[in-house]
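S.,

Sequence below, as promised.
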Amino acid sequence: MIFQTSLVWLRRDIRLDDNRALHEACQSSERVIVLFVFDTNILNKIANKKDRRVYFIYQSLLELRDYLEKHGKSLIVVYGNPLEEISKIGKDFQIQCVYANKDYEPSAIERDKKIKLQLQQIGIEFKLCKDQVIFEENEVLKKDNKPYTVFTPYKNQWLKQFSNKDLTKYTYSMQKIANKEELKKTVFPWNIEAIHFKSTDIFIHPGRKNALTYLENFSKKINDYDTKRDFFQLSGTSFLSMHLRFGTLSIREAFIFAEKFHSKGAEVWRNELIWREFYKMILWHFPHVVHSTFKKEYSSLKWDKNEEFFECWKNGMTGFPVIDAAMRCFKETGWMHNRLRMIVASFLTKDLLLDYKKGEQYFAENLLDFDLSSNNGGWQWSASTGCDAQPYFRVFNPESQSVKFDPSGKFIRQYCPELNHCDDKQIHAPFEYNTGLFSSNLKYPKPIVEHDAQRLKAIKLFKLDKH
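The prediction came back faster than expected:
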């Protein structure tokens, strides 16, 4: 069936290239209108009006608008409730079909069901496309047709099913996209204050052009990714997670890039992309993980409720330099190195014995590349409550992690300048040395807990719950 006019609703896919929904709309329609909705259901819950993620989206859309206008085209951007705005635009422009790319989060699934029903009532079709993953939902299953709950077997089956046809890029027709003149009655003010947010600084540069620049820069690092990615100061990572999260880069483009390199580093990075799919699959099959532990036997763990410890952790004042540097960096930039995410999460749950949900929520509010499935999966892994979890009896030692991955203390010195007078050995655990740190005029705190003692308490906590 050929539609006269279709609407493409951008969500986690702020790009034209290799966009499945846009491709399908162009294939089936004579005219295509591109829409982005600044969803008030989401934005109204964000207290920080300088939220970097909202700014990233805004700047990426601004770049997209400029690109379209060079071709005499444009897009519609509105601020409001998608249920109301899409129906209104559907009627105003006599839309016959709305296309969007699938989202696998429970709240998004529920929203899309409502949208579909509402559009059906006014005679508009609603079509969802698979775009943000290579394999979705039930596409990678065990022989008994049940979902995998351990990563390595899932990865092996994923790789077995994978072929080059899965990396076919989706094209679009610029000619079919609505002209700027046709959309002039819906002009967005194009200032971030129009959505009640403010400009801010951001560690990861937004927009499609920057996504491609990060990808190109990573070509110089990917072959060493397996050996250098864990070192905090080496910038050995891709810095692409935010671009994948908001879709300024497609997942197919990431895998196509990885396939160009035949190295251990490229293989390890590709595995990280498969972890992303694994967690999305887990969230889709087991939505209870949003509110509870994947392993139900741990749902009633007796976590401590020490709010003072939680504040020390958030503000980088625990007396453990690697933890404090990581958390101060996070507070300042919204970014955290993946190895550091594991270290600080282990510390919160196994050293401070605090509920992983507190850390998960704090990351959700502040993490630049926040993605519900990966954030939840990572925290449950660290807390040993997840599907493919760190065994509860293995607890990260902050000092040894620091020595191994920041041997000269360069990262610590950057964010804990009060430790600059320590030598390369002392800086990882200054409380073990007579450094004069704790005289009254110095502000670096003594350790708030004793690691070895807390480790034993954590093991006991999990053992008690298991029996």
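The chain has three domains: 1-131, 133-166+208-285, 296-466.

Coffee later?
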